[in-house]
């Protein structure tokens, strides 16, 4: 029995309708931008395994840091204790985070980082004696699968089974080109007519919506509106953080800074689950009180896991090397060249590039669902041709490890171009 067949017996996979899905591909090895399955077929991981592996699979530098930490201290509870890797990681992050961020809260993944941010936004006002219960989010947002994160997400089929059970969220349009003023006006109206605690957004790129991009000046204006009305702002940098946009964080493109940031995915280079929510001093101070009830009663068993912190420190060290920064710039230039080549293709409606993110929209006759026929046909074509890509409806995106070679990137581009013929 193959590994894929054995997997079917007990494992329930994410975002999968098992009755209609094919067997999962059993991966046995990874190195750099490459993966190999149980039959030794090679794949280029062109989405860095859901955006978490910017420095490549089986990265020896990160692995050595993890091993060294495991032989010193693998884990200790973070309630009432601390340790060297957590302190050092907080200090290193402060060097690259926007300078208004002063406090860090550790969790396990992007959803829980968002969960903490939303809870903090609501409790911030509760602690001050104000009742604010509404969260503002973008249309078609995706912030995760835990309850508050799911409530803030706007992709309906992910959340429709839970309607009526979620926190109060009001959505505003994304300020894409030509729609900026509608977004600004809607935000003003929502804040005027509701008791709004916070506004959460994916800065500059909406990942799960199909890499929808908008300009920094528009987000600056939305943040200014919130600041004027004392509504807290939350930047969900889970996807965009650590170099994906060409800067350390998408918020580095902004003149206005958010009150909170959520980071995960690339934080540990795709090795150990870890996430962090960051805060301004003002937010922390609203919880700093003689009254125990004003504390943030939230925690995870593996909060600030020392081994994860060691992996994150190694990942940050890699990110800041001239070689890795050059890789980010190289991938970006390759994307721009492919964009110029493919944008006039008769099957292509639009293309967009920011940092190491490339996306194109395939021209179709009628609306295509998230997991529709075209998407599945494209996915199967990519896998058949040795490239891991997960289209979003009729949108194909590439978000590769920074260490991908030019030759590997060219193969990805060729497979994407060939896939247009079957669309």
From TrEMBL:
It is found in: Cytoplasm. Keywords: Aminotransferase, Biotin biosynthesis, Cytoplasm, Pyridoxal phosphate, S-adenosyl-L-methionine, Transferase. One of its GO terms (molecular function) is 2 iron, 2 sulfur cluster binding. GO terms for biological process: biotin biosynthetic process. It comes from the Bacteria. It is an enzyme of class 2 (transferase). Pfam families: Aminotran_3. The modification N6-(pyridoxal phosphate)lysine is found at residue 265. It catalyses: (8S)-8-amino-7-oxononanoate + S-adenosyl-L-methionine = S-adenosyl-4-methylsulfanyl-2-oxobutanoate + (7R,8S)-7,8-diammoniononanoate. One of its GO terms (cellular component) is cytoplasm. Its main location: cytoplasm. Substrate binds at residues 50, 265, 299, 390. Pathway: Cofactor biosynthesis; biotin biosynthesis; 7,8-diaminononanoate from 8-amino-7-oxononanoate (SAM route): step 1/1. Belongs to the class-III pyridoxal-phosphate-dependent aminotransferase family. BioA subfamily. Homodimer. Catalyzes the transfer of the alpha-amino group from S-adenosyl-L-methionine (SAM) to 7-keto-8-aminopelargonic acid (KAPA) to form 7,8-diaminopelargonic acid (DAPA). It is the only aminotransferase known to utilize SAM as an amino donor. This is Adenosylmethionine-8-amino-7-oxononanoate aminotransferase. The gene is bioA.
């Amino acid at each position: 029995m193959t590994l894929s067949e054995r997997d079917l017996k007990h494992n329930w996979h994410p975002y999968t309708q098992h009755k209609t899905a094919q067997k999962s591909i059993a991966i046995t090895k990874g190195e750099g931008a490459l993966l190999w399955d149980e039959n030794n077929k090679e794949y280029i991981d062109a989405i860095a395994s859901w955006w978490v592996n910017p420095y490549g699979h089986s990265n020896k530098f990160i692995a050595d840091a993890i091993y060294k930490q495991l032989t010193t201290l693998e884990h200790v509870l973070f309630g009432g204790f601390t340790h060297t890797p957590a302190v050092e990681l907080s200090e290193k992050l402060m060097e690259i985070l926007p300078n208004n961020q002063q406090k860090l809260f550790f969790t396990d993944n992007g959803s829980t980082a968002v969960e903490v941010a939303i809870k903090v936004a609501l409790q911030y006002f509760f602690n001050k004696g104000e009742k604010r219960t509404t969260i503002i989010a973008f249309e078609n947002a995706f912030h995760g699968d835990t309850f508050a994160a799911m409530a803030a997400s706007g992709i309906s089929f992910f959340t429709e089974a839970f309607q009526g059970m979620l926190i109060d969220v009001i959505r505003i349009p994304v300020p894409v080109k030509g729609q900026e003023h509608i977004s600004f006006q809607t935000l003003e109206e929502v804040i005027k007519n509701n008791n709004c605690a916070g506004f959460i957004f994916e800065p500059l790129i909406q990942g799960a919506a199909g890499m929808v991009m908008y300009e920094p000046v528009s987000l600056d204006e939305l943040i200014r509106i919130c600041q004027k009305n004392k509504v807290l702002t939350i930047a969900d940098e889970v996807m965009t953080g650590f170099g994906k946009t060409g800067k350390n964080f998408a918020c580095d493109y902004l003149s206005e800074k958010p009150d909170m940031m959520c980071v995960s995915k690339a934080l540990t280079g795709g090795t150990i689950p870890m996430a962090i929510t960051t805060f301004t001093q003002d937010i922390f101070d609203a919880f700093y009180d003689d009254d125990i009830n004003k504390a943030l009663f939230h925690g995870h068993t593996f909060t600030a896991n020392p081994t994860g912190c060691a992996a994150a420190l190694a990942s940050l060290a890699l990110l800041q090397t001239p070689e890795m920064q050059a890789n980010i710039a190289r991938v970006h230039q390759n994307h721009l060249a492919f964009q110029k080549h493919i944008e006039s293709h008769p099957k292509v409606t639009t293309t967009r590039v920011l940092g190491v993110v490339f996306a194109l929209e395939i021209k179709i006759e009628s609306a295509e669902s998230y997991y529709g026929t075209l998407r599945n046909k494209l996915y199967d074509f990519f896998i058949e041709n040795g490239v891991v890509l997960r289209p979003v409806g009729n949108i194909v995106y590439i978000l590769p490890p920074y260490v991908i070679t030019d030759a590997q990137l060219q193969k990805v581009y060729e497979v994407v171009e060939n896939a247009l013929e079957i669309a």
